[in-house]
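User: I'll paste a sequence; please echo it back and then give the predicted structure.

Assistant: Echoing your sequence first, then the prediction.
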Amino acid sequence: MNISPPQNKPRVSWQAVFSILIFLFMYLPILVLGFYSFNQSPYSATWQAFTLDWYYKLLSDDRILSALKNSLLVAFCAVSISAVLGTLMAVGLARYQFPGKKLYQGVAYLPLIIPDIAIAVATLVFLAAFAIPLSLWTIVSAHVVFCLAYIALVVSSRLTNLDPHLEEAALDLGATPVQAFLQVLLPQLMPGIISGCLLAFVLSLDDFLIASFTSGSGYNTLPMEIFSRIRSGVKPDINALSVLLILSSAIIAIIAESVRSLGERK
């Protein structure tokens, strides 16, 4: 009498099913957006044929290129200023003791949890109170507020993994505090600074709410230009532009995480 061995039925883990559903919920709209960005039809609801014309059209759109230039200028300026101030703030909070340090530390990181609409309104009221005309530089000043907090947070997390005795050793060997900071501490902080700058750059590039409150007439950023165009309906060229923004943000975020992980391993 032959008894066949029991066959093991494949088990489907509920965690795997749940994870797949979550990923579909998160990324299916992006996949649909990318799919319709190659649609030849000017209406997103119907598929006509595959084309790359909408991507080529973006390269000849003066309004898009001007808005992109403004967004890049704002992001580069805001991140550059925030990198210096955020690094100094993180080092000061980690290495020095002074009265009111806990209160200052809590206030410094408030932009991380304050809603964007509150930051936008507060900045607009401040500019109006001092009669400062709105321009591209008022967007930069508003973006520095939250970029500063993000960079300081990333740098401070990097500081917690560093040996503070290295600076003391440099000072004992005759280095000045400035030399110890520039030659010993700063190179070790560089992965965290670069990672924080890349994260802040993405946040500044993608910001719409704060920029729309603090921009002057004729100073559109890329998210503002996208919003102004979708009021009459979402067209394939906007789909193409959104796909490029998503890919650019994802690439920058991956680079930032890679730099941070590499710095921690070293």
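Residues 48 and 118 are 44 Å apart (CA to CA). The radius of gyration is 24 Å.
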